[in-house]
Design a protein that fits this description.
The chain is of the alpha/beta class. Helices cover about 35% and strands about 20% of the residues. Among the domains are: about 180 residues, no CATH class; about 120 residues, no CATH class. A 9-stranded mixed β-sheet has the order 1-4-5-7-6-8-9-12-13, with helices on both faces. The longest helix has 27 residues. The structure holds 2-acetamido-2-deoxy-beta-D-glucopyranose (5 copies). It catalyses: feruloyl-polysaccharide + H2O = ferulate + polysaccharide.
Length: about 525
């Protein structure tokens, strides 16, 4: 009895002692020594379950605070990247470190640190880094007349924090990291692909979601919708209620059951040849104010929206928007106003602030493509170096992505597959996530550990249903994922429990319904 008690005390004392050792190590750390002219803006031990506040973070980032699940040492610094640019850097080093390193990415054209991805990574034992990608907030104003800030945005910020992060991690833990990872979606997906091209030794494994590759064309494509529809009041304009209540319903009527199941989820939108002609009103008199049919100009606008973007000679420059996404795209890309990211890119990078987004001609598209600052394009034909060093890439794309057409990820795979002479599968795998919008949300089984709030915490860190865990398994144990099981939670609320799960297939395989209950994971087969 006495022995047990004293053992217990030893355990408790040891526990307290280890914690305070880690805290002391954190507080005496001096990362400024390892980067000239840097400024340390925060150095603190953050105990598990703290809600960390970021009072200085740009409000447009909409990230005023973050719950920290594990004990971490938080390091925040400002790192100059040139005489006229610098980045805000964060490193979160967990006390219970797995030995792995992970860098996080950004989104849109923003300079917003993905604190939620850093928290996700540290809660799974990774030492995580992130940055503001060279500027603060969601606009592109700071790109104006400053190509150094654009260079940070294109690749330099991520590469810098990766090199610096690994360096201070070594000093901090007095140990090298075992493996190095990257996790990002959207612009973050592009950042990950760019790193595998330009700095193939930066990461052993990369999760690159819904990647904004072929970036210049993508920016123009996103800027092409407003010129197609005009603003509200224009004869071509289709309002949100019509997109959601009429067009989306018609898309589902024409395409939902192509995969065998009527569940509001289109497994493979490449099979959906949506014809908006079915929605044309009998006469223009009927059309006025109608909620059940569209006018001639509206049908024509919808038709154009679902066509690829072409250049001066009709050549395809960017694939079509995939049908199924209109429910959400009506709130953004088709909302009758210039798309803010494209507007800013043309204003502050391609042209000048007089650009108002009212046109998108082949000449404008070419101007963006030629400008290609710091080679931001990111559209590889091959990744030989990354493959040769043993690197692995997992990518995914929501099949109703409302911001970047998922058809572009099919195109990237097809292009790489040719460039790598058919040998992609040994290091690059792409999963199509049916019923998912841009990076997250949607009617499908969209939670699979891809980072970002609920999607991270919802499923266990286990390779069958978590894409980051699957990547670790592939890199460290050579077990490559054949599919990724996604989870749909009731009301998208983890605590409300699972609604259903679905296996997402490895491209080019598609999911086919072979059972009786679409919400049974075994009712589907990848062919
Ligand atoms: C650090 O700052 C000094 C003074 O502003 C400058 O001369 C020097 O080039 C900077 N060093 C680096 C590595 O940026
Ligand atoms: C950018 O945001 C950080 C806080 O995240 C702040 O310390 C820094 O001063 C900001 N920079 C500018 C140029 O506003
Ligand atoms: C530390 O992390 C490992 C997995 O990396 C986990 O099994 C263990 O429970 C963690 N310990 C604590 C005290 O959080
Ligand atoms: C946008 O700019 C063009 C000139 O490039 C001009 O003709 C057009 O009227 C402008 N539209 C608006 C809404 O300001
Ligand atoms: C789901 O959300 C709706 C609306 O917020 C609510 O009425 C419903 O009770 C919720 N269902 C469950 C199972 O939580």
């Amino acid at each position: 009895m006495i022995l047990t008690l004293s053992l217990l005390w030893t355990v408790i004392i040891c526990k307290v002692y280890t914690l305070s050792l880690f805290e002391a190590r954190c507080l005496r750390f001096d990362p400024g020594r390892y980067y000239s002219n840097s400024t340390v803006t925060a150095l603190a031990f953050i105990p598990a379950k703290t809600t960390l506040q970021f009072p200085d973070n740009d409000q447009s980032c909409k990230r005023p605070s973050q719950l920290i699940p594990q004990d971490i040492c938080r390091i925040a610094m400002s790192l100059p990247t040139s005489h006229r640019s610098s980045i805000i850097f964060e490193a979160w080093f967990p006390s219970n470190w797995s030995g792995r390193f992970l860098a996080t990415g950004n989104g849109g054209i923003d300079g917003c640190i993905r604190y939620e991805d850093m928290a996700y990574a540290t809660s799974n034992g990774f030492a995580a880094v992130g940055s503001n990608n060279g500027h603060n907030g969601t606009t592109g104003v700071s790109f104006d007349e400053n190509d150094d800030i654009v260079t940070d945005f294109a690749w330099r910020s991520l590469h810098t924090i990766t090199g610096f992060g690994k360096k201070i991690l070594h000093v901090f833990y007095e140990k090298h990291h075992s493996k190095s990872y990257y996790l990002g979606c959207s612009l973050g997906g592009r950042q990950g692909i760019k790193a595998t091209m330009k700095f193939p030794s930066d990461y052993d494994g990369v999760v690159a979601g819904s990647p904004a590759v072929d970036f210049n064309h993508m920016i123009s494509w996103r800027g092409s919708f407003y010129p197609m529809t005009g603003g509200s009041g224009d004869a071509r304009y289709v309002d949100q209620a019509l997109w959601k209540g009429l067009v989306h319903e018609e898309v589902l009527r024409q395409c939902d059951t192509l995969d065998g199941a009527k569940d509001g989820i289109i497994e493979d939108p490449t099979r959906c040849n949506f014809d908006p002609g079915a929605l044309l009103c009998g006469s223009d008199a009927v059309h006025a104010g109608s909620t059940t049919c569209l006018g001639t100009a509206q049908v024509e606008a919808v038709r154009r929206i679902f066509k690829p973007m072409t250049g001066a000679h009709g050549e395809i420059l960017y694939p079509a928007m995939q049908p199924g996404s209109e429910d959400k795209a009506s709130e953004g890309l088709y909302n009758g106003a210039p798309w803010p990211y494209s507007l800013d890119w043309y204003r502050y990078v391609v042209y000048d602030p007089s650009w108002n987004g009212s046109r998108m001609t082949p000449r404008d598209i070419q101007a963006a493509e030629s400008r290609n600052p710091s080679n931001i394009r990111t559209f590889p034909r091959q990744l030989h170096e990354f493959k040769a060093r043993g690197g692995k890439i997992l990518t995914f794309h929501g099949q109703q992505d409302n911001q970047i057409s998922s058809f572009n990820s099919n195109r990237l795979w097809d292009r790489l597959n040719i460039g790598m002479s058919g040998d992609l599968d040994s290091f690059y795998r792409f999963f199509r996530i049916s019923g998912m919008n841009h990076c997250n949300t949607g009617p499908g089984a969209w939670v699979f550990g891809q980072g970002g709030g609920v999607s991270a915490a919802g499923v266990p860190f286990e390779s069958s249903q978590n894409i980051l865990a699957a990547l670790v398994d592939w890199v460290e144990y050579g077990r490559a994922p054949e599919h990724i099981v996604g989870t749909k939670f009731v009301n998208d609320t983890v605590l409300a429990g699972q609604h259903f799960q679905r296996r997402h297939c490895k491209y080019p395989a598609t999911n086919t319904f072979v059972g009786t209950d679409p919400y049974d994971v075994d009712s589907w087969e990848c062919h």
